Write the C-alpha cells for this entry.
Amino acid sequence: MKTALITGATSGIGEAAAERLASEHYRLIITGRREERLLKVAEYLQTTYRADVLPLCFDVCSLEQVRENLGGLPEGWRQVSALVNNAGLAAGLEPLDAGRPEDWQRMIDTNIKGLLYVTRTIAPLMIARREGHIINVGSIAGREVYANGNVYCATKHAVDALTESMRMEFSPYGIRVSQVAPGAVETEFSIVRFKGDRQRADAVYQGFRPLKAADIADVIAYMMNCPPHVNIADVLVLPAAQAAATMIHRAEVSRQS
Ligand code: NDP
Ligand code: 8X3
C-alpha cells in the first residue's frame, strides 16, 4: 500500500483528493490547521474506507511546524510515495494600491513558502528511495493574470515556475513532478478570499456549472495512477463554461465574469 501526503485536506480539493485516494487504498497523511475538521475527515476516511490515516495539524507557513510535523514522521509513515502540495488561498481582490499587506503576506507565506517548506522536508525522503511523485496545485491564475488578482496570480505563477524547476532537479532520481492548474472550483476558496462574505463568494459560481473538488481529485488520481514511466506534467482543468480566467459564460448574466 502506498502512502500519499496531502496538505490542506480539511476542505475542498485536498479533502476530495484524500477521499479519492482512500477509496483506492492509499495510506494517507492529511494536514490542515483546523484540528476539528482534520480529525473529522480522518475519522470519515477510516470508517468509510477502512483507510490508514495520519492526521497532522499544523500551519504550512511555519518552517518550525513543518519540520516538527513532517521532519520526524513516525516509523511506518516515512515512505511517502506521493506529495500533493495543495494548501493555499487567496485573500482579497483589490487593486494593488488598495491591497492589504497582511493579505499579501498570507498568500506568499502559504502558497509559495509553505509549498517550499513542505517539499524541502519530504523530497529528500523520496530522493533517498529513488521513488516519488510531487503534484503541485497551481491555478489558471498561474497561467494568466487578471485585474485585482495581482499577488494571488504572482504566487500561482511562482508555483508554476517551481514545478518546472523541481521537475528538472528531481527527475534524475526517478521522481515525477506535476502540476494541476484548475479554473473555477466551488470550494471554500471564495469564502476565504472574501473573508466570510458568503453572498460575494456565492456570486462567483452563479450562472454556470463550476468544477467540483472531486473533478480535480479525479485528475490528481489519474496522474498518480499512470505507470511510473509516464509523467502527466501539467494539466489545465476548466469548467466547460470557462474560457479564460475572467471569461466565464454565465447563463443569465453576461459573457464576462
Ligand atoms: P479551500 O479553502 O476549500 O481549501 C484550502 C485548504 O488549504 C484547506 O484545507 C486549508 O486548511 C488549507 N490551508 C490554507 N492555508 C493553510 C496553512 N497556512 N497551513 C495549512 N493548511 C492551509 O480551497 P480549495 O480547495 O479551492 O484550494 C486548494 C488549492 O487549490 C489552493 O492552493 C488554491 O489556490 C487552489 N485553487 C483553487 C481554485 C478554486 O477555484 N477553488 C482554482 C485554482 C486553484 P485549514 O484552513 O484547515 O488550514
Ligand atoms: C483560483 C481561480 O480564477 O479565482 O485559483 O484565480 S481564480
About this structure: The longest strand covers residues 175-182.
